[in-house]
Amino acid sequence: MANVKEVGGYKLGNLIIEGKTKQVFDVPSVNGHCILLSKDRITAGDGAKAHDLVGKSVISNKTNGKVFEILNSVGLKTAFVKSVADNAFLSKKCEMIPIEWVTRRLATGSFLRRNPGVKEGYRFSPPKHETFFKDDANHDPQWSEEQIISAEFKVNGVVIGKYEVEWMTKTSILVFEVLEKVWQTRNCALIDMKIEFGVDSTGELMVADVIDSDSWRLWPSGDKRLMVDKQVYRNLSQVTDKDLDAVKRNFEWVVDQLDHLIPPNNHLVVIVIASMGDKDHAAKIQKYCAELGLITEIRVTSAHKTTESTLDIVSHYEGLGVPLVFIAVAGRSNGLGPVISGNTDYPVINCPPGSRDDLSRDIWSSVNVPSGLGCTTVIYPESAALAAAQSIAMHNYIVWSKLRLRRLGFFEVLGKADKTMRN
Ligand SMILES: Nc1ncnc2c1ncn2[C@@H]1O[C@H](COP(=O)(O)OP(=O)(O)O)[C@@H](O)[C@H]1O
Ligand SMILES: [Mg+2]
């Protein structure tokens, strides 16, 4: 790999660092960025076992690109910018925190050795989180949160303290859960995985390094015997060309699965308003829906005055055959939501408009519904959007991930504010 001068049209600067599987180069033309060039190399046991594997760099770069595109698309901050060649990608240049952040759903591998008595397959809920100091010579010793804080790592000007460690812990679990959901759509169980964090030149902490078939355990159909990850390689006592070929075919299979991920965009949130007077309220709901990645349409109809057209609208959307939620916006006596609810099997959320005074009187028409109706009622546009998102999220990993990220956002905003007050 020596003397690479240019990759994907980018002139390479200095080699910043070279590890077991990648070289990291400066990119003079893009300030604050670097290029990560994968090697055709597979290693295990902190480098004790290592083999050349032609084609691995391309497979790894593809896997990593797909995974990070998903993470970026749901709104997570990561160092990954874009793939620039078969075997290389452009990334924010980070100072890395030398810790591996491991998240596990099922107990297996080293966890069993470190926790005698625990049976393989023990299910962690919430996922189990562990940290290891990156130190090949000492076999990456496990570190506690207290050890990481006490190390007082300073990376690109940021001192890694309690808040940062908690943020990385929460983010590791989030990344695991998002990718677990993604893999569920391919009927694969994500068993555990590791990620790394860095701080870029602007002082921002983010997920960096790579996520590929070296990073996780992945069991198709949840069956350990079908594993398609690097464990297959770790388990080999003698490594023949045929074995390496099998490892490579597994990794290729993983890329193929990621290639066939179907972005679950086929859903609809129909905001039904009873008159044009409710249009601003609907627009607010629509804005919150858009932030959560929901596709919306607004329709106007009165259940009291144009009952047939109300039922027509309901039938039209039911006929599309996509996951569906109705949000009914009607002031005074809300016939709209309850009528839709009595004539569909999809969720109906009432979100009546109006001032507080109107609402305290009108709300009962949404709440005290006839028996046999399952519509729910909220009064804030944001709540309506969230309730719709939670329904859609059950079969949509993108919307689910956006909801999940929103909760990390609460921790971020309050955690940073708290840190500011304490300083
Ligand atoms: N965005 C980035 N900016 C700077 N360095 C990075 C970035 N992403 C990963 N690195 C670092 O690149 C080095 C090479 O990667 P790798 O070959 O996986 O090394 P290792 O064998 O230490 O795991 C690692 O030290 C890793 O932390
Ligand atoms: Mg590495």
From TrEMBL:
GO biological process: 'de novo' IMP biosynthetic process
Protein keywords: ATP-binding, Decarboxylase, Ligase, Lyase, Multifunctional enzyme, Nucleotide-binding, Purine biosynthesis
Associated pathway: Purine metabolism; IMP biosynthesis via de novo pathway; 5-amino-1-(5-phospho-D-ribosyl)imidazole-4-carboxamide from 5-amino-1-(5-phospho-D-ribosyl)imidazole-4-carboxylate: step 1/2; Purine metabolism; IMP biosynthesis via de novo pathway; 5-amino-1-(5-phospho-D-ribosyl)imidazole-4-carboxylate from 5-amino-1-(5-phospho-D-ribosyl)imidazole (carboxylase route): step 1/1
GO MF terms held by the record: ATP binding; carboxy-lyase activity; phosphoribosylaminoimidazolesuccinocarboxamide synthase activity
HAMAP family: SAICAR_synth
Family to which the UniProt record says this protein belongs: In the N-terminal section; belongs to the SAICAR synthetase family. In the C-terminal section; belongs to the AIR carboxylase family. Class II subfamily.
Name of the protein: PurE domain-containing protein
Classification lineage: Eukaryota, Metazoa, Ecdysozoa, Arthropoda, Hexapoda
